[in-house]
Every structure is written in structure tokens, then in C-alpha cells.
Amino acid sequence: MAEERRQKHCSVVLPTESMKAMAESVGVGQLQEDSCVALSEEVSYRIKEIAQDALKFMHHGKRRKLTTSDIDNALKLKNVEPLYGFQSQEFIPFRFASGGGRELHFYEEKEADLSDIINTPLPRVPLDVSLKGNQSQYIYFLFFCIFFSNGIFNFYSVLVCSSPAHWLSIEGMQPAIPENPPPATKEQQKAESTEPLKVVKPGQEEEGTIQGKSQGTTTPDGKGKEKGLIRLKPRSTHELSVEQQLYYKEITEACVGSCEAKRAEALQSIATDPGLYQMLPRFSTFISEGVRVNVVQNNLALLIYLMRMVKALMDNPTLYLEKYLHELIPAVVTCIVSKQLCLRPDVDNHWALRDFAARLMAQSCKTFSTTTNNIQSRITKTFTKSWLDDKTQWTTRYGCIAGLAELGSDVIKTLIIPRLAVEGARIKAVMEGPVVSNIDKIGAEHVQSLLLKHCASVIAKLRPQPDNVDQYRTDYGYLGPMLCSHVMKARTQAALQAQQVNRTTLTITQPRPTLSVSQSGLSGSSGPRTPSIIKVPSSLTLMSPRPGTPSQPSPPATKYIVMATSAGAASTQQVITLSSSQSASPVTSTVPSATSTLQPLVKLESGSGAGLTASRPLQKYIVVSLPSSASSSLETKSSVLPTSISSSSLDGGMKLERSESPGASTQSPH
Amino acid sequence: MIALTGKNQSYVLVLYGLCFPLIHVAHAQFILKMAAVQGGMGDADIKTDIKTEPSADGFGNNNANDGRVLSASPGSSSSTGSNKQTAAVTPEDQQTLLAVLQFLKKNKLSESVEILRREAGLPENSLDPKANESAGAGSGGAAGIVDLEGGDASSLLSRVTGSSSAGAQAPTKGTVQSGSGRDQPDVSVVLSAYSQQGDPTLYKVYYRDLKKFIETVLDCHRAELSQVFYPLFVHMYLELVYNNHESEAKAFFEKFSGDQECYYEEDLRILSGLTKKEHMRGNETLLDFRTSKFVLRISRDSYQLLKRHLQERQNNQIWNIIQEHLYIDIFDGMPRSKSQIDAMSGSLAGEAKREANKTKVYYGLLKEPEIELPLDDEDEEAENEEGKPKKKKPKKDSVGSKSKKQDPNAPSQNRIPLPELKDSDKLDKIMYMKEATKRIRLGPDNLPSVCFYTFLNAYQGLTAVDLTDDSSLIAGGFADSTVRVWSVTPKKLRKVKSAADLNLIDKESDDVLERIMDEKTASESKIMYGHSGPVYGISFSPDRNYLLSSSEDGTVRLWSLLTFTCLVAYKGHNYPVWDTQFSPYGYYFVSGGHDRVARLWATDHYQPLRIFSGHLADITCTRFHPNSNYVATGSSDRTIRLWDVLSGNCVRIFTGHKGPIHSLAFSPNGKFLASGATDGRVLLWDIGHGLMVGELKGHTDTIYSLRFSRDGEILASGSMDNTVRLWDAMKAFDDLETDDFTAATGHIHLQDNSQELLLGTYTTKSTPVIHLHFTRRNLLLAAGVSQL
């Protein structure tokens, strides 16, 4: 390959057209072809020469990227005047233009209006070079002085008070602090889970380091011994240091605790922290045990919290979950298909949990499914099997369909659509037949809307344009007519979105599934629930403190969110207002019905309870404009939850434009 | 601007003129303090030197700079002109020959054509009439230029022989004589040689022929003879280009460039860009190839084989190149293996000659000055802290006895004059010894902790870092021409008070050194402005009073860390200065840069005391030997040279790296040298024997910093691949068995034990490691700037 490159190097010469264009730009009109050839060869050679010199400057500048200043310096070396005006540290925005059979790359220099420059506020002053780290580092120093440097405490402490640096390694072991890269990169974790027999390289995080044995001793020795012997998979003992145990305790408590702000912080930490590799087995066990206990207790809120933890773990770019799927997948599937997830299935919105978990399932299928573990096909089989069973309850049925539907349009096409007629008949039996139970009816309704939601877009792509209601009826039975209208809506929406593409300035590429809790305990319902206790293997006992009585003022930062569709919303214009759960709350935002914008808007208002309104210093408005995919899901969400008090917190998924201002009323959405 | 550059150039010329007398003065004289006198002499010599330059063409030929000078000087053109006449006969002969051939072919006398061709030694592929035609046309057209080539080659040869007699590192006479013997051979040989040389299409055939031969020789010789490929390839290609056979050159390159060793790829890339004769003018790499001999080490048997083959085949073309452009260092004994050869090859001009590494090097350390260690109360305090007051005494004794014994390998104490120790230096030494007693013993079981300093908001502009020996100050050189100094201890940086304020101070008071400082200026960092280009090298003086910085603007600046102002700008390099370093004893410093020479300066002289020239490409890093008597330089020509400060001679040439060398480190005992290059390998060298003793593989990118721990047990390397790696230096050096044979022949057997020697790898978060430093207590400090 290197040879090919070399040969290419040999032949690369600037095109003669460029020579002509350049000649014209300096006023030489007619340039002979052979002089063009001669020139281009010469110029190409000189450019290569300069590039080679510039490379030298790059190497000495200790960079990997060649910058314009390197070229300037190389020119200077050759006693050539440097080029002026290319001071960009990053790429140079060359523009391309063509016309009249000519193609040109040029550097666009816009005319700058002086008055504009004068009138614009000054940009922030760039920060000066410094050696100072932030304050948090000092804490780490102290930490390690205490924990690691028994004999040399004195010696390190000098650095503690003054040092702006961080510890890259302490006596041969690399501490897992934010300044250091994660102990095991995702690739390593992946390699470890796929090729468990591979020898761990020295310098990487390894078990046993904390037990006083420095890493340097273990690895070389181990290596030497290992050479002759059969390679055994090293037994992993995941010892946690004291601070890691503390962290684990704090995080898990916050994740299932009552304080939403703390939870958000904890989830954020799980989703971003690089040093969690060691704790992953604990988290995994925590989640699976937690689900097991809380499914039995029908504790919907805690199940939701746990699913959000799974989500956060999946989002963490430094973690590779493959090794722990055997614990996580059963937990997630339980949350999708369990017969009962909450105490009052008629009131509580366990559907949202099922949706959320289904999305998680789909995500893990996408990420981890391989030909060896066959996750996707196994999951699909499981769902299909229980769906096909006649005795399956509506709740499970809903979960199965949701789980399948999230796996993508192919699955919908091959597995769901052929069964639409059968399922339609079943729904019809419940809806129009004699009232058996309210729960069944609600379940059937949800299944119906779920099917409509997922199938409509797929059918819109499958079927040819004219949507005939009768045709639909014959094809899909009971659901046909409704499906037809949904499909038509989907088509118009798609067309509209296509038009709007240019207009949309703020777009979410992928709406992240998020979920918040329906605080059913608050809506004046039955007695307080017993705090559930989760047994954790590491003998940490976690309480889930919840507000005992409805009247009890909740912690200030807890969000209660209710979604309601605005009355004046046109069919194409989704204005969704999310406001505080206490409907009497004065801050319920008023979305001007005159918003003539066609793009769907979501206005989310979150705050604390009504009692705290007066003291609340600021309110958050989140204005979101969504692309097609997002809007469709939103739309259905709003239709699913028109009356119930359950909610969807959108804050995680749609952090687009977030303005915080003390004057709430002045804030208006785009 | 134009006027300015013009001036610059003449200045350069003058300076180069200045170089030559200086070197010779340096050779002859032994007094370092003569620098001022030399400066004066240099000035006087300039005019005469420039005048004599044309006649003394080969005078400075071992000096890499002269390529540039020579190409511009009239001397070279005149010499080629004179040679033209001697060779002018041949093209005519060839033309007639070709004409006869064409006539015969036209008349379909194929037999006669064949016979004639065979006699003339033309290749067989021209049996094909079409090829013949094109070959004939090609050589006919090119015939006019052939003589030029011949003339040039011989002029080069004469230059090389001239230099060998004049130069300091003269090649041995044996082969040169055989080369000059070929200079005037009998007429028939010359004729056939030139007729072949004239035909560019034959180059391929020659090369293929040789390749076939080398591929069929016995295995033991093949590896050795394969070394010939690369230099031959380069020279044949250059000859083709030089003679304006552009298309043939391209075809030749494409056909055979893939066969070359992968570590020559960078040079090949440069070559590939070079397709015209005009390009050769001013291209330094090329001039190096043509003016310096590529050195090969070949056993006598292999050499005989090659020689016999070439003579049998009458392959004079290749034989000429071997004679003129290669230096074959023949040794008696077993041929070397492929791995042995690969370990040593890779540099721009082949391996080092064995003779080059024969000079005795005094690598031992100088005796430490006897300083009474005052056992004051402070010391006792420290002892109480440690709780082991008894243990300290024997330690100190051992330190003392060690320094009392004179190392047989050490240079005499006054071999080069060193500055007198001041009181403050003595205090510092005492501090050092105290700290040394608290030093952690490192080893595989006891790895150092690494503390990493990350420069924030540097916008990738950090180009050089240095720390003081006591780790109290850190200095950074930046691409925006600034030099910044930070204090990493609570002690802030303060300036000295102004002159008026200083007058008011009571000079007799004990704390006068404290009083002269201006409290108002205390800050954690200071910025120093003065350079006009990126600062590539930076170095603290051992007494922490000065800071040196070298920059793209061609100057080395000396800064005072008391006033934080520039004291001197040392001009001389004129091209970017890539590195500079203070001597461990202060006063002297060395700098090296793009102009391919390293200079030794003394802080109180504005002109260099020594000029070390010999490298064929940029000097990328410079390091002082711990005993201050030697200077090591690493270069883009992929060699490391060790220079004697006293004589200015090159005493060691180490080859083996496959990329520009970017870091060097001497072991604390002065015996070994470690070097790191862009190829990601660390090589270890035994200075006394002049041998490579180890290879540490592991890094995947340029190694920018190397450092031995204070006792030399551990070698730390920091690289562009965002890792710090620790190597077991003790083990690497202990395992050595340097027998007489190895020492005599220079044949090395490297074990591939990098993985065993690697003690740890610590990855940073996308932060290349630019600098490493062991504190006096063996804590490893690293510095870098985030690339995120």
C-alpha cells in the first residue's frame, strides 16, 4: 500500500488549468500549453518541497496537525515571503466554484463592515496559557496522599499545596481520575469480552493493584510465568477502593432516591464518568436485583429509575456492557412485558415505562447483537411467542408489540403488519363487545394506538399512494380505517417536513428516549407506600425515600410535569405545553395561539411545586423544534396521554435551546 | 523585503566562510577561552577565504553546509567545465556505432547487428527492433548530455578524495585509492563504460541483473549484499534525473522503489518528487547523496563475490557507482545477518564507519568537589522526621567515598575549564545531597509516581518545556514567540528591584539576597518577550539564574531569571534553532538547528567557541554529557553524533534509527546514551564501546522526551502517542556482555526483550508528553499540552 502511495506521489502534478487560471489572475492572458506543463511541474515540485519543510516545523512544534504557520515558516526558510491572511489555526475555508467549464477553489474574503465590527459586542477574551488546574484536583491530591503514600506522605504533601498537576500514576498504578483516560477503553473492554484469553497488557488497569501490590511487580512476573503455561482466563475480582465504594453508595442512593435533581446529577455522572469500569458489575447487579424486587412489589417509580440507570450506563461512551447483558436484558425485558408493573394498572402510566424499556432493548440489540450471541433474534422470538399466545394479557401484549416495533421497520413489516387483522379483531372484541373489565379496555386502547403509531409510517412507505379506506379495511380488518387516516396524516406530514427542511434551524437529530416518573402518590390517592428496600450484594442498604403523604411539600427541585395538548393547536401544528402538575399553578405557560409557525413546538415548563412558586428564582423554558421523526413520536405521546396525570419529562432528550431567565412571562418561544 | 533577503544571503555566505577556519582553529588549539581571539581571526579571514573557495573546492566537503554554498559558487561549474573536455570523445563514438547499427538493421542484416551489439556490450533486449530504435533515438538524443554527467561524477570524486585528505573524519585510504585508480583506467574500459552510461534504458537492466545475482547468492551473503540496493538505486535514479532522462527515471523509480527497505520511505518520497535536473539544484538531501559517501559494512567474502560478479558481467555502470559513491567498509569474518544489518542501517548516509567510533571517549564522571556537609540543626530535624538517625551516616559515607575515587574513564578534572563554584552553588549542592539521601530507590518493584503538568489554553502552541534541576520552576516555549516561566512551589517569582531602590539596601546585611527582590512583582508566572518566532528549545541554567531559549528566528537568547529580561541574543545559526541546552556545570551551552551545525557557546561570548559540523541534515536535539566534556546531537539524517568539546571532533556516530531523532538522554553514570526518534523506538548506546546495546519498542509515535531516573535504574520515555512508558534500564544494561569480538567488529546481537523491559505504560488523555523530569527524590514529572 505504501508503494502505491509513493507512486501516486510521483505522478501528482497540478493540473495545467490551474496554471492558466493563476496566470490570468496576475494578468497573463495567453499561456502556451507546454509552458503550462513546465510551470505546473515546477510548481508541484516546489510545493512538495515546502510541504516537506513545513512538516519539520510541525514535528518541532510537537503537533500532529500541519498549520498555516508551518507553511509560513517553511517559506521563510527558503527566503520567500510568507503568505499573508491565512492565520486560521484550523482548516482554511476554501470555497469551490465552477462556471464556464472552469472549476476554482478560492479563499473567500468577505468585505467586513467596519460599523458592524465596532457595534458588535466584544467577544470573550481568550484565556491565557496557564498551568493551573481547577480546584477539584487538589482534593484528589489529598486523597492519594492519604491512601497511597504511606511512607512518603510528607514528600507528596509539598506538591499538594502547590501543584497544578495531576497524578498520572502513583507508584506504578494509574488512578482513575477525570484527568486520566478511563482505565480500560471501550475497545479493551470489548476485546476482553469477545476474546477473554487475551493477555492484559502492562500499564492497564488490573485487579489486585489495590491490595498493596504495585502493578509493576505483578505484570512482568505474571507474564514470564504465563508464557509456558496454558492461558487461563484471569479471575476477575472487582475490588473497589474506599472512594469507589463511597461513590457507588452515593450514586445508587441518588438514582432511586426522591430528589429529582440529585437523580439527574447521578445519571449524568453515570452517563459521562470515565472511571466506572470497575463498578460496572455492581451496577449491573444492582439493577437486576432492583427490578426483581420491584416488579414483585409493583413499584413503578423505582422501575423507571432503574431503567433510566440502564439508559445512562448505555450512554456512557467509556463502558462496554456486553459482559453484563445477561443481567441487564432480563431486567429490561421484564419492564417491557411484565403483566403488572404498578399497583393500579388502570390509572398509572406503566405504558410509558414499557415504551422506554422497549427502546432500551432496541438500542442494546443494535449495539450488541452479533452472530454469536444472536440477541436480536432471540429477543424477537421471545416477543413473538408471547404475543401469539391467546392467553396473553393486554399489558404483556402491549409490551411485546412495543418491543418488536422498536426493533425497526423491517421487523414491523415482517412480523406486525401481517398480524394486524388478527389483532384488530381482538381489539374489536374488547372495544365493542360486552364490557369485561376497564383494565382490558384501556389495554386494548393502548395496543390499538401503539399499532397505529408504529404501523402507519411503515405502511405509508409500503403502499402506493391512493389510500382507499375500503382497501385498508379488507387488508387490515378492524384497524383498517383508522390506519388509513393515520397513513394519510403521516404522508402529509412527511411532505410538510420535506418542505420545511430548509427553514428549520434548530434540529434534533435523534430524540433520546427519556422518561420521568408519574408521581401518582401526589394526586390525592391512597395511602403512602412503604419504602421499598433493595438488597444490594455489597451489603449497602438503599432506601427509596418517597413523600409519605400527598400534602407533604416535596423537595424544591423535584419536577412535576404534566403534558397537555393546547386546544388551539391545528393538526399540523403541535403545541404542547408542559406545566407544573398542580394545575392551579400560576406559571402554566400560555403559548400564544397565534403562533403561526408551522413547525411543531414544544414548550416545557418545569419548576417546583406551587407552594414554592414565589421563592423560585428562575424558570426554565425549553423550546424545541423537531424534525419529522421526533414530532411524530411526540404527537402520539400527547395523544396517548391526554388526560392522565402521568408525564414525560422531555428535558433530557430535548436540550436544544434552553434559556433561563428570571422574567418568565417575557420569554416567548420562537 | 527583497533587499533584505539579499543581504541575508550574503550574510549567510560570509558566515559559512567563517565556519571553515574556525573548525581548523578548533582542531589545532586547545584553549577554550580563545573564542574572542577566534572571532577576530574569523573576521580577518573572511575575505581571503571567500576568494580561495573555488580553488579549495573540497576543502570543507565533510561539512554539510557547503552543499548550499557550492551550488552557488562558481567553483563547481568551472571544475565540471574542465572535465568536459576529457570525456567529449565518447558520445561521438556511440553515435557512429548507433548509426552503423541502424544502417545494418535497415538492410535486414540481423546477424551482423547482433554480433556488433554483442561486441559493443549493448543489452539483449535491444534485439527487438522497436526497442532498438527507441533506444538508439534515446541515447542519440541524450548523447550531448552524457559528457556532463561523466564530468560531474569525476569532479565529485575528486572533491571527495580531496576532502578525505583534508577532513577530520577521513575515510581510510584503501578504497579511495582503488577509486582513484579507476579514475585513469585504460581507454577501452572508459569507452565501454561511457557508452553504457549513456543509455538510460539500460539502467533497469543493470539493476535487475544485479538484483537477480544477489537473490541467487548464498543466504549468508544475501543480506549483506542487499545493502547495496538502496544506495545504488538512489544514485542510478539521480543520474537518470541529472541527465534529463525524465521518463526513464520515472519508470526506473516505479519499478524498483518498492523493493527498498521500508525505513527509507521518507527519502524515497523526497526522491519521487524530484524529476528534473533543475530540481536538484538547492535540494539539500540530494546534494548530500552526491557529495557524501554512503557507508556500507560488508564482509570480505561478500564483497569479493560482488566484485567478481560485476567484473564478469562488465557491469561498469554499477561498479562505477560503487566506487564513486559508496564507501565499503570491509571486515574479515562471518557475514552479518539480516537483523544485524537492519539494526544498524537506516541513516541517510549508511552506517558509521568502524573507524569513526574508535576514538577513546572519557565517559566517566568528574570528581565532585569536596563540600563539607554541615550537620546543622536542619539536618537533624530531617533525621528526626525520618526516625532513623543512625541509618543516615553510612549512606553519606558511601556517597563521599564514591566521589573520592577517580574514575579511570573520567576525563581529567581540568580537561575543559569549568566555572568556579560559587557559594550559592555549594549551597545548592548541599541541598542536592540532602535530597539525594531521601531519594526513593526505584526498580521494577518500586515504580516512580508520575505527576503530570498539563498546560491549559495553550491552543497547541506549546513547543518546548524545561524544569529546573530542583523542580522548582517550569518554563515553556511557545509558538507565539513567548517564553513563560512558572513557579511550581509556593515561592513566587520576583524581580530584582530597580537600580535606584537597590542603592538604598544595606549591602552588609545577611539577607541581602532577600532584600534585593521586589515583593510587588511577585507572581506565579512571568512572560518574557523577545523572540520573533516559535521557541523550539529551552533550558535552565543549573544555578537557576538564567534561562536559554532557541527559536525559529535563528537566535538563542539568554534570559535572566532575576530581572526576567533578555541579556544576550546569540546570533549565528541564521536558520531555525531546534534545540539548546546548558552544560551541567553551567557557563557553556550548545545549540543546533536547521543549518546542520551544532555550536558550542559560552554565555559570556557572543560568538561560538566550537562549531560541530558533520550532520547531513537538521540537528534536532542537543545534549551535554554529564561530565560536560562531550556533546551529543541527534539529527534528521537519522544519526547521533558525539562531539568532543575540547577538540571539536566527532568521536562517535551512532546509526540505527529509522527516523529523525527527537530526544536524547545520557545515563547519570555517563556510560550510556538513550535516543528516541519519530520511528517510536528508543535505542540504547554504549558510549565507551560505541555500540548499540538495546532497542526498546513500544511507542507508536515520535518520542519527544527521554529521561533516566536519578540513579539510572529507570528510563522514562514520553511520546506523541500520549503515553509515558517506563523501562527497566538496569536490566537493559546489566544483561550486556560486551566481548572483545563485538567491540572489535561492531556486530551486535540485540535481543528482542522490549516487553520484558517495559515496566509500565501510562496513557494521558490526548495529551502528548513533551517533557519528562525526575525530581531529586525520583518523582517523575511530565508535561504536555492537551490536543483536544
Automatic annotation (TrEMBL), chain A:
The Gene Ontology biological process terms listed for this entry are: RNA polymerase II preinitiation complex assembly
Q: Which residues cross the membrane?
A: 138-159
| Disordered as annotated region, ranges | 177-229, 510-558, 630-670
The annotated regions of Pro residues compositional bias extend over 547-556
Compositionally biased residues, Low complexity: 515-527, 630-649
What GO terms fall under cellular component here? SAGA complex; SLIK (SAGA-like) complex; transcription factor TFIID complex
Which intervals carry biased composition (Polar residues)? 211-220
Task: Enumerate the GO terms in the molecular function aspect.
Answer: protein heterodimerization activity; RNA polymerase II general transcription initiation factor activity; transcription coactivator activity
User: Which Pfam families does the record match to this protein?
Assistant: TAF (PF02969), TAF6_C (PF07571)
Q: Which keywords does this chain's UniProt record carry? A: Membrane, Nucleus, Transcription, Transcription regulation, Transmembrane, Transmembrane helix
Q: Where is the TATA box binding protein associated factor (TAF) histone-like fold domain?
A: 12-78
Family matches, as InterPro entries? Histone-fold (IPR009072), TAF6 (IPR037796), TAF6_C (IPR011442), TAF6_C_sf (IPR046344), TAF_TATA-bd_Histone-like_dom (IPR004823)
Where does the protein end up? Answer: Nucleus
Q: Give the family this protein belongs to, as stated in its UniProt record.
A: Belongs to the TAF6 family.
Q: What is this protein called?
A: Transcription initiation factor TFIID subunit 6
Q: Which organism is it from?
A: Oreochromis niloticus (Nile tilapia)
Automatic annotation (TrEMBL), chain B:
Q: Which PROSITE patterns match?
A: LISH, WD_REPEATS_1, WD_REPEATS_2, WD_REPEATS_REGION
Q: Where is the composition biased (Low complexity)?
A: 56-82
Q: Where is this region: Disordered?
A: 48-90, 124-143, 158-183, 373-421
Q: What Pfam family is a match for this entry? A: WD40
Instruction: Cite a single GO BP annotation.
Output: transcription initiation at RNA polymerase II promoter
Where would you find this protein in the cell? Nucleus
Coiled coil stretches, renumbered:
none
Q: What residue spans carry the Basic and acidic residues bias annotation?
A: 396-407
Alphabetized UniProt keyword annotations: Nucleus, Repeat, Transcription, Transcription regulation, WD repeat
Q: SMART domains, from UniProt?
A: WD40 (SM00320)
Q: Does the keyword Transcription apply?
A: yes
Residue windows of the WD repeats: 455-496, 528-561, 570-601, 612-653, 654-687, 696-728
In what residue span(s) does the TFIID subunit TAF5 NTD2 domain sit?
198-326
**Where is this chain primarily localised?**
nucleus
Compositionally biased region (Polar residues): 172-181
Instruction: List the record's Gene Ontology CC terms alphabetically.
Output: transcription factor TFIID complex
UniProt similarity note? Belongs to the WD repeat TAF5 family.
Q: Which PANTHER family match?
A: TRANSCRIPTION INITIATION FACTOR TFIID (PTHR19879), TRANSCRIPTION INITIATION FACTOR TFIID SUBUNIT 5 (PTHR19879:SF4)
Q: What is this protein called in UniProt?
A: Transcription initiation factor TFIID subunit 5
